Every structure is written in C-alpha cells, then in structure tokens.
Write the structure tokens for this entry.
Amino acid sequence: MTTLPIPADPTALPQADIGVIGLAVMGENLILNMANHGFTVAAFNRTVSKVSHFTEGRARGLSIIGANTLEELVGLLRRPRKVMLMVKAGRPVEEFIEHLRPLLEPGDILIDGGNSHPSDTQRRMQDLAKDGLLYVGTGVSGGEEGALTGPSIMPGGSPAAWPEIRPIFQAIAAKVADGTPCCDWVGEGGAGHFVKTVHNGIEYADMQMIAEAYHLLRDVGGLSAPEAADVFREWNAGELDSYLIEITADILGKTDDVTGQPLVDVILDTAGQKGTGKWTSVGALDAGAPAMTITQAVYARYMSALKTERVAASAVLPGPAARPAPDRATLVEQVRRALYASKIAAYAQGFQLMRMTAQESGWTLDYGSIARMWRGGCIIRAALLGTISDAFAAQAELPNLLLSPPFVAAISEHQQAWREVIALAALHGVPVPAFSSALAYYDSYRAARLPANLLQAQRDYFGAHTYERTDGPRGEFHHTNWTGRGGETASTTYNA
Ligand code: 6PG
C-alpha cells in the first residue's frame, strides 16, 4: 500500500483550508490552482487509489494532503470546514451529501462545483439548513485549462458562506486586465447554478452561430478549412474577439495526422450534449422567456444527431437550384456582421431569461456583475461582455440589451448584412437556424404590432377564450359569438 503524505504530528491537524472531493480533470486542476495560490487542500476520491496517484504525481511537493476516507478528509479541515464536490451532477452529488452530512457541524460549508440543476441546489440548500449547514452551488466555467489557470466562478446558495469561501474563490478565479476576479456572489439558493446554466445556454447559441458562419463560408463561399481559419483569426482581432472564435480558428487550421486532411473535415457531424443547454431552454419555456436562439441551438444538435436519416433524406429531398457564389470578400464581411448581430440577440435572450426567472424566484441578480464574471475564464468570454457590463453599469434595470445604445448602433450598422446573409442562406439551401431565430427575435422585439390579434380571435372563435381590444383598457376581456351558433358564455381567462 502507498503511504499517504499525511503529517506524522497529529497536533498539526486540522490544517487544510478546504477539502475537494473528486479527482477527475476539473477537480484535480482546481486543487492545483488552489495550492498554487497558497491554500492547503485536502483531497479525496471515491476510488481511493486515485488519491495517492495524484499526491505522488501532479500534486507532489505542493500543499495538497490526500485522505483515504471522508472522515479523514473532514478531520483535516479548519473550521468552519469547507468541502467542495467536483463530482458528476445528480446521484453522485446526492450520495456524497448523505455521507458528509453526519460528519459536519453547524456553520460548515458544502460546495457543489459541478453543473447541477438549479432546482436540486435550491432543495439541497434548504434541506441542509435544517442541520445548520451552509450550502453553495457554484458554476465553474473554463474547462480543464480554466480550472488550472483561472476559471470563471459563479457561486450562490447560503449567503453566510460567501465571506468564508470568498478569499479562496476570488484568488483562484481568472482576472481581467484591471485585476478584477471573474467571481462574485450571485445570489441565494440555486442562483449560482442557474446563472451557470444560462451561461451554457448562451454557449450553445454562440457555438451554433459560429458553426453556421463556418457552414456559409464553406458551402456558399467555397472556403477550405485553412482559409476559414484565417478568416476566423482575422475576426478575432475585431469586435468578435472571443475565446470561441479563437479556438475555432485553431480547430480549422489543424491537420489530421491520419489522412493529412483538415481534421475538422474528418469529424462526424453529430453533436453530443450533457444537457445544460436543454435545461436553459426548458427554464425559458417555464419562465415564459423567448430564448429562441438558445433553444434553436439545442434543436440544431438534436437534428445533427439524426445523421442516418439525414443522409437518406439528402438523396430524396430537393434543394434549390445551383446559384452563383457571391464575391468572397463581400460574403466574409456580411457573415461577420450577421454573426455579431446574432450574438447580440442571443446574449439579450440569456439576460432577459435571467431577469424573468429572478423575478419569479425572488433573486436579486446583478447583471453587470454577471457580465463582469463572464469577461474572463469562462467558455463564452468575449470582448462583447465588456460592452454588456458597461450597458448595465449605465442602466442597472435595462429591460433588454437590444435597447442599450451601443447595441442599437451596432445592429443598425449590421442589420442589412444580417438580413442579406439569412436570405442568401435560404436561397442556397443552407440551414441557419440560430441566425434566423436571432433575427426573428430582433424583429419581433421591435414590432409594435405582431399578428397575435389573429391568434386571439382564433382562440375566441373555437373556444370562447376571449380577447382584449385595442380601444379598451388592458385586462378587460371580450367574447364574440363569431358564428351565431355559439352561446354568450366565455371561458375563464388565465395564462399558463
Ligand atoms: C464550461 C462548459 C462546461 C460544459 C461543457 C460540455 O463552462 O466550462 O460549459 O460546463 O459542461 O462545455 O457541455 P455540453 O456537453 O453540454 O456541450
């Protein structure tokens, strides 16, 4: 058996600032990040052999102490004890909480750093409060590299936990140019995990929009992957500057070792997902928030997964007649503009969703602070988030980002190209669900009169569901006997 580097002198215990459970790549890297910032970390993993493997490998020589059991881990911690779970969401989180609960004392803090569903976090916080335990559900974004060098961290839960965990979390978080850490308290209950879920929904939209831009460059513009790589690299030097554009340029420039072709060309076009994009969409449907582009991005992944059916259908279903390709430089610039305008609309939807859900959940979210947390470390980090944080600094209660003057200006400048690109895509038979839904969101939001008057008339016609009149006060409902055969009784009015 391997000897664990637990100090021989038991009077030196407890000595760890925090305990971390779960030595998969995110957990290991977060521990190393904490140790690199001067914290002493106790580490545990369900498969205990991983602990010594870690302490004798990557963690050797650092202030990281392995624990063989949960009891040992808890015994190593300074009070109030802080235990962070970096394990799979769902059952594993539930099981560790059950095992840790009797080992902890009132005032101790349990932290879940995985992608848990916000409602699970909310429930766990309320339940653990019965034993006086503090609970934090925190978003951690940035992938394995971010975890090691500085992620964006979005904690929420029991407010009393924040002053205790703040020094560790803000030390290990990414910092933007002025030194501000990409980590701040989000709010009570499931607020931290909710904000991380919306981050991921925006991530889905962002990735899908980039994929659509690439599709247009490839199938309408005829650009090869390396040529598209140069385009994305150039875009990254301007207003589209972001982590996802940067890695897209790298990806498109990579050659496959086996075939010598661009690697992207030999990757199968079916997208996987772990579900956070779907959670965002389901949350948006529940909140009545029109997060159309985020949901379209989820549908686009579902559609991509139907590979066999698509291949069969491609031999049967006709597309448009071949059309001449537009001038390459013009196309590239128009797609860039369409991508930026679509991106603004997708972010507007994400912030609108947060606003609507916060109202329902009784959370006070600081949207400027959320934008600041997303400026560095996380997957959606982008220059645009600086503009978004400025927009909320100028108007904390901004109802929709589309109304912020810099975005009004950007969309006025880009909307013509945005419309032309979507029309061009339709004429060439290239699907652009995220671009199109982003434009539909924009055009719907700016429409003083939508055709919902007809929907209300139809509802009243077949179900006596009533309608409000343009020349009457809001809240006054009318019913018309449209056919002369119906009665005068209207159904009750309520909105699901
Ligand atoms: C992050 C990411 C991360 C997410 C993966 C995979 O912020 O670091 O959002 O949390 O789990 O990117 O997500 P999908 O498998 O759903 O694409």
